[in-house]
Amino acid sequence: MGDFIPLFPLGTPLFPGIVLPLQIFEPRYRRLMRDLLTHPEAGDRRFFGVVAIRQGWEVERVAPAEALYDIGCTARVQAVRPQADGGFRIVTVGGERFRLLDVVVADDPPYLQAEVEWLGEEEAAEEAAGDTDGLLIPGAAEGAPPCDDGLDEVVTSVARGSLDVLTRGVRDLFTRYVAEVSDLGSGGGGGGGPTLDAETAVLLDAVSDDPAALSYLVASAALLTTEDRQALLAESATRRRLASESRMLRRELTLLQELGAVPVPLQQFASPMTVN
Fold first, then answer.
1. Bond from prior residue into 27 cis (ω within 30 degrees of 0)
2. Domain 124-268, what fold?
3. Where are the domains of the chain?
4. Tens-place pLDDT, residues 75-119
5. What is the DSSP letter of 145?
6. Cα–Cα dist 182/258, whole Å
7. Which of 9, 40, 47, 177 has the smallest count of CB within 10 Å of its CB?
8. What are phi and psi of 82, to 5 degrees?
9. Taking 90 as the threshold, does the pLDDT of residue 208 lie above it?
10. Which has more pLDDT, 158 or 82?
11. What is the pLDDT of residue 54?
12. Are β-strands 71-82 and 113-118 bridged in parallel, bridged antiparallel, or unpaired?
């Protein structure tokens, strides 16, 4: 048996550490907010699960379990501002990832609930075991298991080193990508070539020493499809998530440079976000 949590379907995934402001106006989600506000502000129950809706599917018209992706992220309520019309303006921050086990539809409460299992991150195990996925260990036969503690240490060292290199590579690619998108969105009239805007530069600096936070910032901010973003959310290992983002960013940079156009409205790129 997993935990039961309230659900809030959206058109795109939420990622850990990313700010999500919402305006709550539907009656069922007003009820959700009133239910959450019964929990102590200092407690740990003021959250709901955000799950992405499969593209082109309406949750109300098909079985919710079919309309929703199975991996989501909790949204922890940080600030609430009640509105005169009975709605709410709230600010949430992405918390823990989870997998849907079952979706519950009921008249009371009117919002969706789900049984979920919590998904851990693999950083600790990956680092301790020296995850060798995609790594070439000098002097070791391909696919051969480590034969002694010395080789274990080499594998772990190479794995850590590869993560550092990968992190720098993704940060550089994302910097170029943001600059290209901003330049195209402004008409490319800067004269000095694409440049990184100040807000994104601050965010990148904030996550420069945190590979996991960088991976979630890129997944949230890049102009990717829902399917691409969902695949990144489902990935539990930071190094593999960054490796996927490296491929995606190279692909997107090529498209930007060849087509000379931003694939979606630029304001979607500039949505408020932070890393906590």
1. no
2. Methane Monooxygenase Hydroxylase; Chain G, domain 1 (1.20.58)
3. 3-118, 124-268
4. 999 999 999 999 999 999 999 999 999 999 889 999 999 999 999
5. P
6. 16
7. 40
8. -60, 145
9. no
10. 82
11. 85
12. unpaired
